[in-house]
Amino acid sequence: MLSLNFTSFPTLQTDRLILREHALTDANTLFEMRNNDDVMRYIHRERQKTVQEIETFITTFNNGFKQGQHLAWVIALKENPAQMIGSIGYWRTDLPNYRAEIGYMLQPDYWRKGIISEALVKTIAFGFNEIKLHSIQANISPANQASREILLKHGFKKEAYFKEDHYFNGEFLDSEIYSLLNK
């Protein structure tokens, strides 16, 4: 079985980006992102009501990394590594089956600039080469055309369409599942 046992948090770099561990200093930015209607339009998760709830979320999430449950990075530009502009990572892992779910979000000022694509290339490579995943999946809202396009661009294939498979804000919603196999 796979494990997420790293001696320290793996910081990754691309041409423009640093992918680093979440810090409590990211709480205000993450709070703004998770309460931005545009950012959260297709992310069906409860929104935190206070920055303190986000701080607890960050602490819990970082503890989950230490326990080998998941791995997610803050996306920051190299010229300002302390300023979070997004996040990407393996939010749900199915290590006995060598599979993990990737997810991402980005501040709207950085949309359509290739940021998620650049971060996705690096995290996919890390997932296959370092974690040794066999497959990576993404679960998106069928209405999220931008996410679908970026997944297809990076070789993901549509694996499933689930009708009304989850309940959020008083309604049943559909999901599309995309996956990428480690060849």
UniProtKB/TrEMBL annotation:
PROSITE patterns noted in UniProt: GNAT (PS51186)
Domain N-acetyltransferase, residue spans: 17-174
Protein name: GNAT family N-acetyltransferase
Lineage: Bacteria, Pseudomonadati, Bacteroidota, Sphingobacteriia, Sphingobacteriales
